[in-house]
Amino acid sequence: MLNPQETGIDFVNTVVDGKDFNILTYRNFYNGAGVAIGDINNDSLPDLYFTSNQQKNKLYLNKGNFVFEDITEKAGVGGTGVWSTGVTMADVNGDGLLDIYVCNSGDVDGADRQNELFINNGDLTFSEKAKAFNLNNEGYSTHAAFFDYDLDGDLDCYILNNSFKDPGKIELYKKVREEPNAGGDKLMRNDDGTFHDVTTVAGIYSSDIGFGLGVAVGDINDDQLPDIYVSNDFWERDYLYINKGNGKFSEELINRINYCSVSSMGADIADINGDGKPEIFTTDMLPADNNRLQTTMAFDPYHLEDAKYRANFHYQMVQNCLHLNDGNGNFQEIALLAGVAATDWSWGALIFDFENDGKKDIFVSNGILRDIMSMDFREFIADRENRNEIKGDKDSIDNRDFISYMPAHPLKNYAFENSGKLTFTDHATELGLGQPSFSNGSAYGDLDNDGDLDLVVNNINSPSFLYRNEASGNLGNHFLKVRFKGAAQNPFGIGAQVTIKMKDEIQVLQNFNTRGFESSVEPLVLFGLGKVEMIDTLRVIWPDQKVETMTNIKADQTLTLHHADAAVVEEHRPKKPAPYFEEVSARVIPGGARHFENRNNDFDQEVLLHHMLSTEGPRLVTGDVNGDRLEDFILLGALGDPDKLFIQKADGTFSFKMSPGFVNDKGFESTCGALFDHDGDGDLDFMVGSGGNQPEVDRINYVVRFYKNDGRGNFVADPGSMPQVIGNFSTLEAEDYDQDGDIDVFLGARVVPGNYGLPPQSYLLLDDNGRWMNVAPPALGNVGMVTDATWADADADGDKDLVVVGDWMAIHIFKNDNGIIENDVTIPQSNGWWNRIEPADLDNDGDIDFVLGNWGLNTKFKASPAKPLTMFVNDFDDNGKSEFIINWYPPLDSQAYPFATKTELVAQLPGLRKSILKYEDYAPKTYDSLFSPEVRKRSTAYEANYLASAILWNEGSTYSLVALPTAAQLSPVFGILADDFDGDGNMDIWLGGNFYAMKPQVGRHNDSRGVYLRGNAGRTFTYVPQSGLYVEGEVRDAAMIQSNYGKRLFIARNNANVLVFEKRK
Asked: Does the structure show a pLDDT above 90 at 760?
């Protein structure tokens, strides 16, 4: 960081609360201001413009060698002194000179608040002409982006505004998004130098509920048309506008993005994984340490989150979001996997290459002047006695007296370096970027023309930061800088896209300069090349879609591309390979096969749960029930939704067969089942286990049911054949494990309803001449909270062993010794939150391996042997009901803390209230300091140290647990299929998952659309995104069903239709 006395940049954004205008009267008082970088006098030295909230804005002329001159007064660009926010440098009038557009807001009348456009006169002076260009918007403007949306050659303008309305006074469920409002966002089309409002006709929302804080532009679906991402504060969701090429946009966020940040602030669009497809990054306000998590964060209850979704506000999570482009213009949110989700109260979001190593990194500016979300402050100020005491004998309230009680904590900014594997590590301190501050707007540019990107940050109440990047001199990495000489009305080539290729490496940059928060970057592109000295090909696509291609470009130079050298080229895009599979659900199941989930809020019953247990179905049960040698299936039903039988016909279609016995038993929630011939009459009978976690349901609703088959697929309840066991069961695995000619059953228990963490009882039921006898050894009966199991010959000795996985469980292999199940082999360091297991010989070596579905790595919870998740179960308050405490390591902490908030913990254990009266009292508490040694001694302890979905490789006498590729870790896995789908002799894997019913502070896990892993030699797998196995929703089970036309894949989803896929002909 350079000294302001040496650089001449003495700018400070001074913000002081006044009596009448302050954080309590203006919600955006602490949002800060922006910075723009651009060369205003075309001397190849980029200059700087800072906006100010309460003083004049400032323009600094770059004199070279990091010396700047304040020319604000001479240039005439200080502004009116109103509350300035965002700033953008753009050549608005197309004369080859950068102009300056300043957004204004604050508590002043509209005419005095209007935005300002400083037109560059070419002599280091500017003339304010916003009204002449019709850009004098009078809203609470946050920022603006200039780009050619209609491809007519000139720059249009998107003005991002923040609603005039108090968000607390807007009816949440009144449909107002489509109702235009004067204070809403505006799209201004440039028609021969004058801008016209085309907001409504272009399909842009401009309503009362738009609380815009960030805007970024980029071509996200690879159609050479600029799209727009808008970050909205509060409960309004973000917007993703897809350019349709006809002067209109289609708002498609809900269709393309599974969830967004709640309080979205800054935004940027750029490719972070080197596939040429841009990602979207937004900032929010999730802290990374326990102290601030517990003292500054409050989360909506589940029922309110659900209500917002049903009111069309989409799913939102309090965290930064990194939306990974899947190549189809759709996105998977991976911020938690990537390690960039929690940066506290964050503003700027910039994606650029810090070190010129060829990988795009992420910078986040951070901090708010006072902790307006301080939970203790909010409780303190809500107390009338406290308010009266602060007011004293004054005639009127002075808000500054209340504001003085707000805590103030400057925070460091974040600099995430890209590992190249979709993960990032914060190296702000090591890079010299970690000074505590209240930072807001930030921008990058090559200020000294040495081939790396320097950084400028606008701070509240402290001098701005100017960071000189020394990567080019110290690391030996190469670069290519590209400037643009664009078309007549777009001289800086805004919207041009440059692609470079070096052997197997590709980089793509798009020349849009509105980025981050309230700021704009230098209008050029700079590629970090690492050790590459020669670029094989460079291709530029200009906004009018003219193209130029160059070859063999040397590194370490500044290249100027001229629009005049480009030509119209007929596009010959390589044809995408045809997907392996196609969906045939409507043809195969003409009437559909749908699961209906009952509504039950588990969090009302167990406050400390992090996810519901009553939405883990449905399962599919397959078999030939009518003896026609065609496989049929039963879709298990939730409470109130009967099991459904579907019969396969010779033509490969399935028809629903009414089963009165199933309808009569719809008061049960069926969670597992199996078809097998219990009575030896040659047909398949049906045994089904119950579950669902509804504690108010009578115990009789958790019995295991049995239905006798008449040979034609008609099932009749047969109470006499029911095993006399009761439990909430998750898996029912049938096998003649003792090889005596009849079928035995393992029943894995999920939980004790309403008492998560209490060890449930599992059963191994031996068929003893028609009588069921439980022969489970204690190690199996008390194995834990089972989620799945499978019979497989794990030790290749000719009989079936039992492999069991579960919640907070290691992988257990119970060896079969001549029909006796007893020897428990536990895989070391495998304690996970396992969901599914599927046996298969994955490496064709003749023994059985196992694919295991776990919770995944794209989650707030992280687990390792060094930093495990732990859970302690006890009747902590001696009220006759168990409670549990889950402990985790927040990202910045080396100490484990309870995950529950103070509000949740006190609601579950009211006796703790006196010891943790304040949030700041609770924040440092650990499990050990909350409970006495005597209480802790009687707790049941659990641990999880492995959350990745994985393969358990059978090495003969030992096993090795290896995580699946990153694509398999984006969501919990519940459906697994293993087969040689493509017929190349190698086993492939398909995975499905997602889980919606999560506590809001955990966030829904819904970033899997199915993962197809093509098997290779040598135990490796390649993710194939274009497989055709595209599955939305919550997958809960998957099965391969044979028909006369080959194998088909059946995918069961919670509260949705079964999907069917077959290999494309």
From this structure: yes
- Do 218 and 156 share a structural domain? yes
Three-state SS at 587? helix
DSSP tag of 910: G
Per-residue pLDDT at 108: 78
Which backbone phi and psi does 754 adopt, to 5 degrees?
75, 5
Q: What is the pTM of this model?
A: 0.96
Exposed / middle / buried, residue 582 (Cβ in 10 Å: 0-12, 13-18, 19+): middle
Amino acid in position 520: S
Between 343 and 575, where is the model more confident? 343
Query: Is 993 among the domain residues?
Result: yes
The residue from 437, 455, 476 where one domain ends is: 476
532 within some domain: no
Q: Among 476, 502, 530, which residue terminates a domain? A: 476
- In angstroms, the CA 335 to CA 272 distance is 12
Q: Which residue range forms the structural domain that includes residue 899?
A: 869-881+895-941
Residue 491 in domain: no
Q: CA-CA distance, 1018 to 1023, in Å (whole number)?
A: 15
Strands (E), 367-477: 411-412, 414-418, 424-426, 436-437, 439-445, 454-459, 465-467
Query: Alpha helices, DSSP H only, in 773-833?
Result: 778-781
Report pLDDT digits (tens) over 479-508: 999 999 999 999 999 999 999 999 989 999
* Same domain flag for 929 and 1012: no
774 and 922 share one domain: no
DSSP 720: G
> Rounded distance, CA 773 to CA 764, Å?
8
Give the Cβ contact number of residue 804 at 10 Å: 26
Contacts of 397 (CB under 8 A, 6+ apart): 391
- Alpha-carbon distance of 877 to 879, in angstroms, equals 6
Q: How many domains does the chain have?
A: 3
Count how many Cα atoms sit within 13 Å of the Cα of residue 913 in the half-sphere of its side chain: 7
What pLDDT score does 396 carry?
78
Strand pairing category for 249-251 and 331-333: unpaired
**For 958-967, what is each residue's pLDDT tens digit?**
999 999 999 9
Handedness of CA 623, 627, 631, 637 (dihedral sign): negative
Cβ–Cβ under 8 Å, residues 158 and 243: no
Chain centroid to Cα 84, Å, comes to 32
State whether residue 253 is helix, strand or coil: helix
Measure Cα distances from 309 to 145, 280, 314 in Å: 30, 22, 5
Are 112 and 127 part of one and the same domain? yes
Number of C-alpha atoms within 13 angstroms, CB side, residue 712? 4
Beta strands in 964-1045 (DSSP E): 973-979, 988-993, 1011-1015, 1021-1023, 1035-1043
Q: State the amino acid at position 646 in one-letter form.
A: F
Supply 767's token pair. Answer: 């068929």
Confidence of residue 696 (pLDDT cuts 50, 70, 90): low
Is 570 inside a domain boundary? no
User: In this structure, are 773 and 876 located in the same domain?
Assistant: no
Closest CA to 616 of 161, 1054, 111: 1054
Element (H, E) at 111: helix 110-113
Q: Residue 363: give its domain's CATH number.
A: 2.130.10.10
* Residue closest to 7 by CA, chosen among 51, 64, 56, 50: 64
DSSP state letters, 112-164 = HH--EEEEE-SSS-EEE-TTTTT----SEEEEEEEE-TT-SSS-EEEEEEE-S
Q: How many CB atoms lie within 10 A of CB 285?
A: 24
Calculate the dihedral angle through the C-alpha atoms of 730, 735, 737, 742, rounding to the nearest 10 degrees. 130
Dist CA 37 CA 461 (whole Å): 21
- Whether residue 364 sits in one domain with residue 257: yes
Tokens describing residue 324: 């990974």
Identify whether residues 843 and 900 lie together within a single domain: no
Does one domain contain both 74 and 154? yes
Instruction: Report residue 292 as tokens.
Output: 């601030």
